[in-house]
């Protein structure tokens, strides 16, 4: 079996990976938070200090991108030393690298070797790391060969839905959602709008930001608009991802008025439900749950 000839580069985020990134995510486990557009948005708005590890296989005529891992340089507490945090920026919730599974056994140790030889910090914080798939197994193997045992602080299961599983078609929760949908429909025309064009995403995102600011998050100061730096970053983030058709805002409307909004991000064959906000005046109808849980299956009149 041919052993791949790999090189790993470490640099600030670059935005011109284009088709190389697109090709990688067609067969690797996705992670939208490793999208170069998201990383560049974080750096250029001063939101995060990021270094990107890129694994390349040298082919006959060109280099092939077989792995990408963005790491944030940050202090986890005042006076603590700087570490490498695998969540590249705040508001990211998956820290796993995007690696071609056919190369996982060589890319992961190559990443560690590159970190060891660099001037980067040698402590890795891996919150929200995907423990399924070949990358995690390759990481455990590589660390084991170095005599390193990772310190696991907690484990949790993240909900997900596929065409085959994950959505309850019956039961008390589904029954309540159907009842909520019927009561909401009595108020007027109910529809979902999810314009994925770049021109349509930005105003929809502003609507989401306004809904969130008007909610309890605004009262507690945790809404995105409560912090100017956060607001500047997420606006740039969604704008740049939308330019790649990698973000949109699904809206639940009654008589044309938006009562709930769900920010979605896309990578490969996966959509991420990033943030949700709703109008508290419609809270008794569970508008956020209806939007997130796919209420469209409850009525044939609503487009899928």
Secondary structure blueprint with pairings:
Blueprint: E1 6-11, H1 19-24, H2 36-44, E2 50-58, E3 63-74, E4 83-85, E5 98-99, H3 104-117, E6 124-125, H4 134-145, H5 172-185, E7 190-193, H6 198-213, H7 216-220, H8 228-242, E8 247-254, E9 257-267, E10 270-278, H9 287-292
Parallel strand pairs: 4-6
Antiparallel strand pairs: 1-2, 2-3, 3-4, 3-5, 7-8, 8-9, 9-10
Brief descriptors of the model:
alpha+beta; Aminopeptidase; 2 domains; four-stranded antiparallel beta sheet; disordered C terminus
What does this entry look like structurally?
- Helices cover 32% and strands 22% of the residues.
- Helix 2 (36-44) runs antiparallel to helix 8, helix 3 crosses helix 4 and helix 6 (198-213) runs antiparallel to helix 8.
- The chain has helices spanning 19-24, 36-44, 104-117, 134-145, 172-185, 198-213, 216-220, 228-242, 287-292; strands at 6-11, 50-58, 63-74, 83-85, 98-99, 124-125, 190-193, 247-254, 257-267, 270-278.
- The chain is of the alpha+beta class and 304 residues long.
- Strands 1, 2, 3, 4, 5 and 6 form a 6-stranded mixed β-sheet that branches.
- It folds into 2 domains: 6-145, Aminopeptidase, CATH 3.40.630; 172-298, 3-Layer(aba) Sandwich (Aminopeptidase), CATH 3.40.630.30.
Question: What does this entry show, briefly?
Answer:
This protein is α+β, with helices and mostly antiparallel strands and 304 residues long.
């Amino acid at each position: 079996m041919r052993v791949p000839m790999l090189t790993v580069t470490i640099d600030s985020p670059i935005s011109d990976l284009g088709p190389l990134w697109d090709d990688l995510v067609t067969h690797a486990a996705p992670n939208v938070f490793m999208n170069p557009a998201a990383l560049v948005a974080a750096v250029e708005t001063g939101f995060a200090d990021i270094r990107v590890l890129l694994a390349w296989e040298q082919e006959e005529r060109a280099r092939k991108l077989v792995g990408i891992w963005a790491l944030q340089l940050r202090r986890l507490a005042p006076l603590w030393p700087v570490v490498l945090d695998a969540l590249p920026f705040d508001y990211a919730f998956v820290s796993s690298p995007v690696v071609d599974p056919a190369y996982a056994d060589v890319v992961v140790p190559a990443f560690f070797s590159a970190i060891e030889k660099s001037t980067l910090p040698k402590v890795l914080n891996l919150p929200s790391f995907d423990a399924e798939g070949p990358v995690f197994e390759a990481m455990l193997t590589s660390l084991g060969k170095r005599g390193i045992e990772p310190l696991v602080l907690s484990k949790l299961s993240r909900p997900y839905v596929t065409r085959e599983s994950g959505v309850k078609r019956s039961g008390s929760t589904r029954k309540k959602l159907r009842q909520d949908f019927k009561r909401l429909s009595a108020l007027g025309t109910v529809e979902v709008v999810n314009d994925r064009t770049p021109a349509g995403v930005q105003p929809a995102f502003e609507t989401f930001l306004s809904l969130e600011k008007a909610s309890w998050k605004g009262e507690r100061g945790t809404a995105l608009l409560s912090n100017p730096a956060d607001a500047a970053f997420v606006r740039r983030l969604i704008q740049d991802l939308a330019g790649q058709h990698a973000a949109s805002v699904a809206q639940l409307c009654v008589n044309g008025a938006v009562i709930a909004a769900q920010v979605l991000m896309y990578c490969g064959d996966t959509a991420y439900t990033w943030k949700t906000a709703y109008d508290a005046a419609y809270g008794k109808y569970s508008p956020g749950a209806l939007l997130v849980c796919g209420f469209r299956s409850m009525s044939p009149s609503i487009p899928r």
